[in-house]
Amino acid sequence: MNLARIVITGVGLTAPNGNSLQEFRRNLLTGVAGIEWLDVRYMGRLLAGVCHFDALKHQKKKEVRVGTRAGSISIWCAREAIEDSGISFGTYPRDRVGIYIGCTEHGNVETENEIYAISKFNYDTKYWSHYHNPRTVANNPAGEASLNLGVTGPAYTIGAACAAGNLGLIHASQMLRLGEVDLAVCGGVSESIHTFGIFAGFKSQGALATNDVPAKASRPFDMARNGIVVSEGGCLYTLERLDDARARGARIYAEIAGYGVNSDASDYVLPNPVRQAECVRKSIANAGLKPADIHIVNTHATATPLGDIQECEAIRAVFGEGCPDTHINNTKSFIGHCMGAAGALELAGNLPSFDDLVVHPTINVDHLDPACALPGLVVNTPVKAARVETILNNSFGMLGINSTLIVKRFVA
Amino acid sequence: MTNEECKKAVLDIIADIAPDEDLSNVKPDVRLRDQLQLDSMDFLDIVMELRKRHGIEVPEADYTRLASLDSCAEYLTPKFNALAAKS
Predict the structure, then answer these.
(1) Do A131 and B41 touch (CB under 8 A)?
(2) Which end of chain A is least crowded, N or C, by CB within 10 Å?
(3) ipTM score assigned to the predicted complex
(4) Do A165 and A30 fall into the same domain?
(5) pLDDT over threshold 90, residue A201
(6) Within a domain: A173
(7) Is B59 part of the contact surface with chain A (CB cutoff 8 Å)?
(8) How far is A131 from chain B (nearest CA, A)?
(9) A130–B18 CB contact, under 8 Å
(10) What percentage of chain A exceeds 90 in pLDDT?
(11) Domain total for chain B?
Protein backbone atom coordinates (compact mmCIF):
# COMPACT_ATOMS: atom_id res chain seq x y z
CA MET A 1 0.00 0.00 0.00
CA ASN A 2 1.39 3.36 -1.02
CA LEU A 3 0.41 5.67 1.82
CA ALA A 4 0.70 9.43 1.68
CA ARG A 5 3.54 10.91 3.70
CA ILE A 6 2.29 12.98 6.64
CA VAL A 7 4.24 15.89 8.09
CA ILE A 8 4.02 18.14 11.12
CA THR A 9 3.84 21.78 10.06
CA GLY A 10 2.74 23.65 13.20
CA VAL A 11 2.87 23.34 16.99
CA GLY A 12 0.72 25.05 19.61
CA LEU A 13 1.05 24.17 23.25
CA THR A 14 0.64 25.09 26.85
CA ALA A 15 2.66 23.25 29.46
CA PRO A 16 3.18 23.93 33.15
CA ASN A 17 6.61 25.33 32.22
CA GLY A 18 5.91 27.08 28.94
CA ASN A 19 3.29 28.42 26.57
CA SER A 20 5.23 28.06 23.34
CA LEU A 21 7.54 25.43 21.93
CA GLN A 22 10.49 27.78 22.30
CA GLU A 23 9.82 28.51 25.98
CA PHE A 24 9.03 24.88 26.74
CA ARG A 25 12.19 23.64 25.04
CA ARG A 26 14.36 26.25 26.73
CA ASN A 27 13.11 25.12 30.12
CA LEU A 28 13.64 21.46 29.28
CA LEU A 29 17.26 22.21 28.43
CA THR A 30 17.89 24.36 31.49
CA GLY A 31 16.24 22.13 34.09
CA VAL A 32 13.24 24.36 34.83
CA ALA A 33 10.30 22.36 36.16
CA GLY A 34 6.74 23.66 36.31
CA ILE A 35 5.20 22.15 39.43
CA GLU A 36 3.48 24.24 42.10
CA TRP A 37 1.07 24.07 45.02
CA LEU A 38 -2.62 24.06 44.15
CA ASP A 39 -5.65 24.23 46.43
CA VAL A 40 -7.82 21.27 45.55
CA ARG A 41 -11.45 21.09 46.71
CA TYR A 42 -11.89 18.88 49.80
CA MET A 43 -8.20 17.94 49.78
CA GLY A 44 -6.24 21.12 50.48
CA ARG A 45 -2.84 22.03 49.08
CA LEU A 46 -1.45 19.53 46.61
CA LEU A 47 1.31 19.45 44.02
CA ALA A 48 0.18 20.05 40.46
CA GLY A 49 1.30 21.25 37.07
CA VAL A 50 -0.65 24.42 36.28
CA CYS A 51 -0.68 26.21 32.93
CA HIS A 52 -0.60 30.01 32.78
CA PHE A 53 -1.58 30.87 29.22
CA ASP A 54 -3.75 33.90 28.50
CA ALA A 55 -7.10 32.41 27.46
CA LEU A 56 -8.40 35.85 26.48
CA LYS A 57 -5.87 36.05 23.64
CA HIS A 58 -8.12 33.77 21.61
CA GLN A 59 -11.47 33.76 23.44
CA LYS A 60 -14.03 36.27 24.60
CA LYS A 61 -14.71 36.41 28.33
CA LYS A 62 -18.11 34.90 27.72
CA GLU A 63 -16.59 31.93 25.86
CA VAL A 64 -14.36 31.27 28.83
CA ARG A 65 -17.31 31.54 31.23
CA VAL A 66 -19.59 29.25 29.25
CA GLY A 67 -16.96 26.77 28.12
CA THR A 68 -14.63 24.42 29.91
CA ARG A 69 -10.96 24.58 30.82
CA ALA A 70 -10.30 21.77 28.34
CA GLY A 71 -12.08 23.86 25.72
CA SER A 72 -9.89 26.87 26.49
CA ILE A 73 -6.73 24.77 26.33
CA SER A 74 -7.84 23.30 23.01
CA ILE A 75 -8.61 26.71 21.54
CA TRP A 76 -5.29 28.13 22.71
CA CYS A 77 -3.31 25.23 21.28
CA ALA A 78 -5.27 25.09 18.02
CA ARG A 79 -4.95 28.82 17.36
CA GLU A 80 -1.25 28.85 18.24
CA ALA A 81 -0.58 25.81 16.03
CA ILE A 82 -2.42 27.27 13.06
CA GLU A 83 -0.57 30.57 13.46
CA ASP A 84 2.72 28.70 13.73
CA SER A 85 1.95 26.71 10.57
CA GLY A 86 1.73 29.85 8.47
CA ILE A 87 -1.47 28.60 6.81
CA SER A 88 -3.73 31.34 5.45
CA PHE A 89 -6.56 30.18 7.66
CA GLY A 90 -8.82 33.10 6.85
CA THR A 91 -9.38 31.73 3.35
CA TYR A 92 -8.86 28.04 4.10
CA PRO A 93 -11.87 25.79 3.33
CA ARG A 94 -13.06 25.03 6.83
CA ASP A 95 -14.95 21.91 5.81
CA ARG A 96 -11.62 20.30 4.90
CA VAL A 97 -10.20 20.75 8.39
CA GLY A 98 -10.43 18.00 11.00
CA ILE A 99 -9.93 18.46 14.74
CA TYR A 100 -8.87 15.30 16.57
CA ILE A 101 -8.12 15.76 20.25
CA GLY A 102 -7.03 13.06 22.64
CA CYS A 103 -8.46 13.15 26.16
CA THR A 104 -7.87 11.05 29.22
CA GLU A 105 -11.37 11.86 30.40
CA HIS A 106 -13.82 14.71 30.12
CA GLY A 107 -16.70 15.91 32.24
CA ASN A 108 -15.47 15.17 35.73
CA VAL A 109 -14.51 18.78 36.37
CA GLU A 110 -17.87 20.18 35.34
CA THR A 111 -19.86 17.49 37.15
CA GLU A 112 -17.95 18.03 40.38
CA ASN A 113 -18.48 21.78 40.07
CA GLU A 114 -22.24 21.37 39.66
CA ILE A 115 -22.59 18.95 42.55
CA TYR A 116 -20.62 21.36 44.71
CA ALA A 117 -22.82 24.25 43.53
CA ILE A 118 -26.10 22.50 44.35
CA SER A 119 -24.71 21.41 47.71
CA LYS A 120 -25.14 25.08 48.64
CA PHE A 121 -28.85 24.73 47.85
CA ASN A 122 -29.53 21.53 49.78
CA TYR A 123 -28.92 19.47 46.62
CA ASP A 124 -31.99 20.90 44.91
CA THR A 125 -31.43 20.05 41.24
CA LYS A 126 -33.32 23.09 40.03
CA TYR A 127 -30.04 24.91 40.63
CA TRP A 128 -28.16 22.57 38.24
CA SER A 129 -26.67 24.48 35.30
CA HIS A 130 -28.22 24.29 31.85
CA TYR A 131 -24.63 24.31 30.57
CA HIS A 132 -23.87 20.98 32.19
CA ASN A 133 -24.57 18.84 29.13
CA PRO A 134 -22.65 20.87 26.52
CA ARG A 135 -19.79 21.14 28.99
CA THR A 136 -19.60 17.44 29.73
CA VAL A 137 -20.21 15.74 26.40
CA ALA A 138 -17.09 13.81 25.45
CA ASN A 139 -16.51 15.88 22.31
CA ASN A 140 -16.53 19.17 24.25
CA PRO A 141 -12.84 20.17 23.84
CA ALA A 142 -12.88 19.59 20.08
CA GLY A 143 -16.36 21.09 19.74
CA GLU A 144 -15.32 24.30 21.47
CA ALA A 145 -12.33 24.56 19.14
CA SER A 146 -14.56 24.06 16.10
CA LEU A 147 -16.88 26.85 17.32
CA ASN A 148 -14.00 29.21 17.95
CA LEU A 149 -12.27 28.48 14.64
CA GLY A 150 -15.37 28.13 12.50
CA VAL A 151 -14.22 24.66 11.46
CA THR A 152 -17.05 22.71 9.84
CA GLY A 153 -15.13 19.49 9.19
CA PRO A 154 -15.07 16.59 11.66
CA ALA A 155 -14.18 17.67 15.21
CA TYR A 156 -14.17 15.11 17.97
CA THR A 157 -12.18 13.70 20.83
CA ILE A 158 -10.45 10.38 21.20
CA GLY A 159 -10.68 8.80 24.62
CA ALA A 160 -7.55 6.79 25.31
CA ALA A 161 -6.58 7.53 28.91
CA CYS A 162 -3.00 8.75 29.11
CA ALA A 163 -2.17 7.35 25.68
CA ALA A 164 -4.57 9.84 24.13
CA GLY A 165 -2.09 12.52 23.01
CA ASN A 166 -0.34 10.10 20.67
CA LEU A 167 -3.70 8.77 19.51
CA GLY A 168 -4.71 12.26 18.38
CA LEU A 169 -1.75 12.38 15.99
CA ILE A 170 -2.14 8.78 14.88
CA HIS A 171 -5.84 9.16 14.13
CA ALA A 172 -5.20 12.41 12.28
CA SER A 173 -2.56 10.73 10.13
CA GLN A 174 -5.05 8.03 9.24
CA MET A 175 -7.76 10.54 8.34
CA LEU A 176 -5.33 12.50 6.15
CA ARG A 177 -4.27 9.31 4.38
CA LEU A 178 -7.92 8.42 3.80
CA GLY A 179 -8.45 11.83 2.26
CA GLU A 180 -11.15 12.70 4.79
CA VAL A 181 -9.55 16.08 5.48
CA ASP A 182 -6.69 18.18 4.09
CA LEU A 183 -5.56 19.75 7.35
CA ALA A 184 -5.67 18.09 10.74
CA VAL A 185 -5.42 19.91 14.06
CA CYS A 186 -4.55 17.13 16.45
CA GLY A 187 -2.93 16.11 19.71
CA GLY A 188 -4.18 16.01 23.26
CA VAL A 189 -5.43 18.16 26.13
CA SER A 190 -6.15 17.78 29.82
CA GLU A 191 -7.99 19.88 32.40
CA SER A 192 -7.57 17.20 35.05
CA ILE A 193 -6.13 19.33 37.86
CA HIS A 194 -9.54 20.97 38.23
CA THR A 195 -11.16 17.76 39.45
CA PHE A 196 -10.44 16.57 42.97
CA GLY A 197 -11.42 13.08 41.88
CA ILE A 198 -8.25 12.37 39.95
CA PHE A 199 -6.08 13.42 42.89
CA ALA A 200 -8.20 11.47 45.36
CA GLY A 201 -8.19 8.43 43.09
CA PHE A 202 -4.42 8.38 42.76
CA LYS A 203 -4.05 9.01 46.48
CA SER A 204 -6.32 6.08 47.31
CA GLN A 205 -4.27 4.03 44.88
CA GLY A 206 -1.06 5.05 46.69
CA ALA A 207 0.16 6.69 43.49
CA LEU A 208 0.06 10.45 44.25
CA ALA A 209 3.44 12.15 44.59
CA THR A 210 4.39 14.05 47.72
CA ASN A 211 7.42 16.25 48.23
CA ASP A 212 8.25 19.38 50.21
CA VAL A 213 9.84 20.95 47.14
CA PRO A 214 7.45 21.19 44.17
CA ALA A 215 10.16 21.16 41.50
CA LYS A 216 11.52 17.90 42.93
CA ALA A 217 8.19 16.10 43.15
CA SER A 218 8.07 14.39 39.77
CA ARG A 219 11.07 12.07 39.70
CA PRO A 220 10.84 9.10 37.36
CA PHE A 221 13.58 6.48 37.75
CA ASP A 222 14.79 7.95 41.06
CA MET A 223 14.90 5.73 44.15
CA ALA A 224 12.82 8.28 46.07
CA ARG A 225 10.00 8.51 43.53
CA ASN A 226 6.64 8.14 45.17
CA GLY A 227 4.00 8.73 42.55
CA ILE A 228 2.37 10.96 39.97
CA VAL A 229 2.15 14.76 39.90
CA VAL A 230 -1.15 15.56 38.20
CA SER A 231 -0.92 18.32 35.59
CA GLU A 232 -3.01 20.11 33.05
CA GLY A 233 -1.82 21.01 29.59
CA GLY A 234 -2.31 20.72 25.89
CA CYS A 235 -0.46 20.36 22.65
CA LEU A 236 -2.01 20.40 19.19
CA TYR A 237 -0.22 20.10 15.88
CA THR A 238 -1.13 20.90 12.33
CA LEU A 239 -0.60 17.82 10.19
CA GLU A 240 -0.77 17.78 6.43
CA ARG A 241 -0.01 15.47 3.58
CA LEU A 242 3.50 16.17 2.37
CA ASP A 243 2.38 17.23 -1.11
CA ASP A 244 0.05 19.87 0.34
CA ALA A 245 2.66 21.12 2.78
CA ARG A 246 5.29 21.46 0.06
CA ALA A 247 2.88 23.12 -2.33
CA ARG A 248 2.42 25.97 0.10
CA GLY A 249 6.08 26.08 1.09
CA ALA A 250 5.44 25.07 4.68
CA ARG A 251 8.15 24.70 7.28
CA ILE A 252 8.24 21.01 8.20
CA TYR A 253 9.12 20.03 11.76
CA ALA A 254 9.12 16.28 11.21
CA GLU A 255 7.49 13.44 9.33
CA ILE A 256 5.27 10.80 10.86
CA ALA A 257 7.34 7.64 10.50
CA GLY A 258 5.15 5.01 12.11
CA TYR A 259 3.10 4.04 15.08
CA GLY A 260 1.77 1.17 17.13
CA VAL A 261 -1.33 0.86 19.27
CA ASN A 262 -2.37 -2.18 21.28
CA SER A 263 -4.06 -3.26 24.50
CA ASP A 264 -2.80 -5.17 27.51
CA ALA A 265 -6.05 -7.03 28.14
CA SER A 266 -4.66 -7.89 31.55
CA ASP A 267 -5.58 -5.33 34.24
CA TYR A 268 -7.51 -2.13 34.94
CA VAL A 269 -4.49 -0.17 36.13
CA LEU A 270 -1.34 -2.29 36.21
CA PRO A 271 0.89 -1.90 33.15
CA ASN A 272 1.99 -4.92 31.15
CA PRO A 273 5.62 -4.74 29.98
CA VAL A 274 5.15 -7.57 27.49
CA ARG A 275 2.41 -5.68 25.68
CA GLN A 276 4.32 -2.40 25.98
CA ALA A 277 7.34 -3.97 24.30
CA GLU A 278 5.03 -5.42 21.67
CA CYS A 279 3.60 -1.96 21.01
CA VAL A 280 7.08 -0.43 20.67
CA ARG A 281 8.15 -3.20 18.28
CA LYS A 282 4.98 -2.75 16.23
CA SER A 283 5.70 0.94 15.82
CA ILE A 284 9.29 0.33 14.76
CA ALA A 285 8.20 -2.27 12.23
CA ASN A 286 5.44 0.04 11.01
CA ALA A 287 8.09 2.69 10.38
CA GLY A 288 10.25 0.22 8.50
CA LEU A 289 13.06 0.65 11.02
CA LYS A 290 15.14 -1.40 13.45
CA PRO A 291 15.55 -0.59 17.17
CA ALA A 292 19.08 0.67 16.53
CA ASP A 293 17.62 3.30 14.15
CA ILE A 294 15.79 5.01 17.04
CA HIS A 295 17.81 7.88 18.46
CA ILE A 296 15.53 9.26 21.17
CA VAL A 297 13.05 7.26 23.23
CA ASN A 298 10.77 9.50 25.27
CA THR A 299 9.44 7.33 28.06
CA HIS A 300 5.95 7.41 29.47
CA ALA A 301 7.27 6.78 33.02
CA THR A 302 5.09 8.57 35.58
CA ALA A 303 7.29 8.04 38.67
CA THR A 304 5.24 5.29 40.24
CA PRO A 305 7.49 2.72 41.92
CA LEU A 306 6.27 -0.22 39.84
CA GLY A 307 5.26 1.44 36.57
CA ASP A 308 8.72 2.89 35.87
CA ILE A 309 10.39 -0.49 36.36
CA GLN A 310 7.90 -2.16 34.06
CA GLU A 311 8.41 0.34 31.27
CA CYS A 312 12.16 -0.03 31.67
CA GLU A 313 11.70 -3.77 31.34
CA ALA A 314 9.83 -3.21 28.07
CA ILE A 315 12.45 -0.78 26.76
CA ARG A 316 15.28 -3.10 27.75
CA ALA A 317 13.58 -5.92 25.87
CA VAL A 318 13.55 -3.85 22.67
CA PHE A 319 16.66 -1.67 22.94
CA GLY A 320 18.81 -3.65 25.36
CA GLU A 321 21.44 -4.81 22.92
CA GLY A 322 23.11 -3.20 19.96
CA CYS A 323 21.56 0.27 20.13
CA PRO A 324 24.52 2.53 20.93
CA ASP A 325 22.90 5.62 19.39
CA THR A 326 19.63 5.35 21.33
CA HIS A 327 19.09 7.98 24.01
CA ILE A 328 16.29 7.68 26.55
CA ASN A 329 14.64 10.54 28.41
CA ASN A 330 11.48 11.62 30.23
CA THR A 331 9.54 14.88 30.20
CA LYS A 332 7.19 14.25 33.14
CA SER A 333 10.10 14.95 35.48
CA PHE A 334 9.65 18.62 34.49
CA ILE A 335 5.90 18.98 34.02
CA GLY A 336 4.28 16.10 35.86
CA HIS A 337 1.71 13.96 34.15
CA CYS A 338 -0.38 15.98 31.71
CA MET A 339 -2.67 13.00 31.16
CA GLY A 340 -4.40 13.25 27.77
CA ALA A 341 -1.91 15.92 26.71
CA ALA A 342 1.16 13.99 27.85
CA GLY A 343 2.02 12.17 24.64
CA ALA A 344 1.56 15.21 22.44
CA LEU A 345 3.44 17.59 24.76
CA GLU A 346 6.32 15.22 25.36
CA LEU A 347 6.80 14.71 21.64
CA ALA A 348 6.90 18.49 21.17
CA GLY A 349 9.59 18.90 23.79
CA ASN A 350 11.83 16.61 21.79
CA LEU A 351 11.12 17.87 18.27
CA PRO A 352 13.81 20.60 18.36
CA SER A 353 16.42 17.83 18.76
CA PHE A 354 16.27 17.40 15.00
CA ASP A 355 17.77 20.88 14.75
CA ASP A 356 20.09 21.18 17.76
CA LEU A 357 20.99 17.48 18.21
CA VAL A 358 20.58 17.96 21.96
CA VAL A 359 18.62 15.41 24.00
CA HIS A 360 16.85 16.87 27.01
CA PRO A 361 17.32 14.88 30.20
CA THR A 362 15.07 13.39 32.81
CA ILE A 363 15.64 15.48 35.92
CA ASN A 364 15.38 14.87 39.65
CA VAL A 365 17.43 11.69 39.54
CA ASP A 366 19.46 11.95 42.75
CA HIS A 367 19.79 8.20 43.19
CA LEU A 368 19.06 6.23 40.06
CA ASP A 369 17.03 3.11 40.72
CA PRO A 370 19.23 0.26 39.48
CA ALA A 371 16.12 -1.36 38.03
CA CYS A 372 15.73 1.75 35.81
CA ALA A 373 19.38 2.09 34.79
CA LEU A 374 18.81 1.81 31.07
CA PRO A 375 21.73 2.21 28.69
CA GLY A 376 21.44 5.61 27.05
CA LEU A 377 19.32 7.17 29.80
CA VAL A 378 19.99 10.92 29.82
CA VAL A 379 20.09 11.95 33.46
CA ASN A 380 19.83 15.49 34.86
CA THR A 381 21.77 17.31 32.16
CA PRO A 382 21.25 17.42 28.37
CA VAL A 383 23.59 15.53 26.09
CA LYS A 384 24.70 16.24 22.55
CA ALA A 385 23.87 13.33 20.28
CA ALA A 386 25.87 12.26 17.27
CA ARG A 387 22.68 11.81 15.27
CA VAL A 388 19.00 12.50 15.77
CA GLU A 389 17.07 11.14 12.84
CA THR A 390 14.17 9.57 14.75
CA ILE A 391 12.19 10.12 17.95
CA LEU A 392 10.03 7.41 19.51
CA ASN A 393 7.36 8.55 21.93
CA ASN A 394 5.68 6.17 24.41
CA SER A 395 2.31 6.91 25.99
CA PHE A 396 0.42 4.30 27.95
CA GLY A 397 -2.89 4.48 29.78
CA MET A 398 -5.32 2.82 32.13
CA LEU A 399 -7.32 -0.17 31.00
CA GLY A 400 -4.16 -1.18 29.19
CA ILE A 401 -4.10 1.13 26.16
CA ASN A 402 -0.57 1.50 24.75
CA SER A 403 0.56 3.87 22.03
CA THR A 404 3.94 4.48 20.46
CA LEU A 405 4.53 7.13 17.83
CA ILE A 406 7.71 7.58 15.81
CA VAL A 407 8.61 10.74 13.95
CA LYS A 408 11.63 11.23 11.76
CA ARG A 409 13.65 14.08 10.39
CA PHE A 410 12.06 15.31 7.19
CA VAL A 411 14.18 14.53 4.16
CA ALA A 412 12.74 15.48 0.81
CA MET B 1 -37.17 48.00 46.09
CA THR B 2 -37.70 50.60 43.40
CA ASN B 3 -37.89 49.93 39.69
CA GLU B 4 -34.45 51.50 39.29
CA GLU B 5 -32.96 49.25 41.97
CA CYS B 6 -34.53 46.27 40.26
CA LYS B 7 -32.99 47.26 36.94
CA LYS B 8 -29.61 47.54 38.63
CA ALA B 9 -30.01 44.04 40.10
CA VAL B 10 -30.76 42.69 36.61
CA LEU B 11 -27.82 44.59 35.10
CA ASP B 12 -25.52 43.17 37.80
CA ILE B 13 -26.51 39.70 36.66
CA ILE B 14 -26.06 40.56 32.99
CA ALA B 15 -22.61 41.98 33.75
CA ASP B 16 -21.56 38.53 34.95
CA ILE B 17 -23.15 36.46 32.22
CA ALA B 18 -22.15 38.76 29.35
CA PRO B 19 -18.77 40.07 30.52
CA ASP B 20 -17.72 41.34 27.10
CA GLU B 21 -20.68 43.71 26.80
CA ASP B 22 -20.62 47.43 27.51
CA LEU B 23 -23.57 47.99 29.85
CA SER B 24 -23.05 51.71 30.38
CA ASN B 25 -25.74 52.70 27.92
CA VAL B 26 -28.40 50.01 27.96
CA LYS B 27 -31.73 51.49 26.87
CA PRO B 28 -34.43 50.39 29.31
CA ASP B 29 -37.24 50.36 26.76
CA VAL B 30 -35.36 48.38 24.07
CA ARG B 31 -35.30 44.59 24.05
CA LEU B 32 -32.09 43.36 25.67
CA ARG B 33 -31.48 40.94 22.78
CA ASP B 34 -31.65 43.84 20.32
CA GLN B 35 -28.84 45.74 21.98
CA LEU B 36 -26.68 43.06 23.61
CA GLN B 37 -25.19 39.76 22.47
CA LEU B 38 -27.54 37.57 24.48
CA ASP B 39 -28.83 34.17 23.40
CA SER B 40 -31.45 31.85 24.83
CA MET B 41 -28.91 30.18 27.12
CA ASP B 42 -28.04 33.60 28.53
CA PHE B 43 -31.68 34.23 29.37
CA LEU B 44 -31.72 30.92 31.19
CA ASP B 45 -28.70 32.25 33.07
CA ILE B 46 -30.65 35.34 34.08
CA VAL B 47 -33.47 33.12 35.34
CA MET B 48 -30.99 30.92 37.21
CA GLU B 49 -29.20 33.84 38.82
CA LEU B 50 -32.49 35.41 39.92
CA ARG B 51 -33.24 32.09 41.60
CA LYS B 52 -29.78 31.67 43.15
CA ARG B 53 -29.10 35.25 44.24
CA HIS B 54 -32.57 36.47 45.09
CA GLY B 55 -34.81 33.41 45.52
CA ILE B 56 -37.05 34.63 42.71
CA GLU B 57 -38.72 32.08 40.45
CA VAL B 58 -39.63 32.98 36.90
CA PRO B 59 -41.92 30.36 35.34
CA GLU B 60 -41.20 29.52 31.72
CA ALA B 61 -44.46 31.08 30.63
CA ASP B 62 -43.20 34.42 31.96
CA TYR B 63 -39.78 34.44 30.26
CA THR B 64 -40.99 37.02 27.78
CA ARG B 65 -41.48 39.42 30.68
CA LEU B 66 -37.68 39.68 30.89
CA ALA B 67 -37.38 41.14 27.40
CA SER B 68 -36.25 44.65 28.35
CA LEU B 69 -35.04 46.38 31.50
CA ASP B 70 -38.37 48.17 31.79
CA SER B 71 -40.35 44.95 31.46
CA CYS B 72 -37.99 43.26 33.92
CA ALA B 73 -38.62 46.01 36.45
CA GLU B 74 -42.36 45.88 35.91
CA TYR B 75 -42.43 42.12 36.40
CA LEU B 76 -39.71 41.59 38.99
CA THR B 77 -40.04 44.57 41.36
CA PRO B 78 -43.29 43.27 42.91
CA LYS B 79 -41.62 39.87 43.33
CA PHE B 80 -38.62 41.44 45.08
CA ASN B 81 -40.93 43.43 47.33
CA ALA B 82 -43.14 40.43 48.10
CA LEU B 83 -40.05 38.49 49.17
CA ALA B 84 -38.85 41.42 51.28
CA ALA B 85 -42.24 41.64 52.98
CA LYS B 86 -42.06 37.94 53.87
CA SER B 87 -38.65 38.15 55.48
Answers:
(1) yes
(2) N
(3) 0.93
(4) yes
(5) yes
(6) yes
(7) no
(8) 8
(9) no
(10) 99
(11) 1
